[in-house]
């Protein structure tokens, strides 16, 4: 039975944008597994699989239902031990936890200050209302005010990427010559911005940009199949 990945989309169901869903999409490709996808907006998620989870991704693999991107990666590693490893061993699993923590505390907040209003604008009407109300409550200000100074935030954001830049300038991926789940964690964040926002902030010559392009090309261009926002 082909696995099903439930993904977050906006008005255009062919443009999944969740960073966490992209992690899982590439993890499934890494494992060489056949899977289909099902699109859902924010307000549709509670109806999926009988209310199984309040968030996506959700992976349905036979009788198994798993949510949370890292939990899904761990499930895939256990369920398919004969396929290429996502972690390269227990040490890699622990280091991937660090990469996830760094990404969610450094990259995600910075990208939200850049793309939050654009994400809102790509959603359907009911999801726009949900997104605005929930995010403005969390941010303590309007979406417009939240991103108003995004141009001035680019330089500090690029500086914060130096730990990533220093590694991918010397090797193709965080995993070395070939990618591991740690790469997909960080890739998901940049793909989130690429798919949902037309605002461009990464210099073409940056080693991080070049690493991202390598990730976009993985698995017959799986990431590049969804065009950048225009």
Overview of the structural elements:
It comes from Jiella flava. Residues 8-84 form the GST N-terminal domain. Pfam families: GST_C_7 (PF22041), GST_N_3 (PF13417). GO terms for molecular function: glutathione transferase activity; maleylacetoacetate isomerase activity. This protein is an alpha+beta fold and 230 residues long. It folds into 2 domains: 3-79, 3-Layer(aba) Sandwich (Glutaredoxin); 90-221, Glutathione S-transferase Yfyf (Class Pi), Chain A, domain 2 (Up-down Bundle), CATH 1.20.1050.10. Helices cover 54% and strands 9% of the residues. The chain has 9 helices and 4 strands. The chain has helices at 19-31, 69-79, 90-121, 125-139, 143-147, 150-160, 162-168, 181-196, 207-221; strands spanning 3-8, 35-40, 58-61, 64-67. It has a 4-stranded mixed β-sheet, with helices on one face. α1 runs parallel beside α2 (69-79), α3 (90-121) runs antiparallel to α6 and α3 (90-121) runs parallel beside α8 (181-196). It starts with a strand and ends in a 9-residue tail after the last helix.
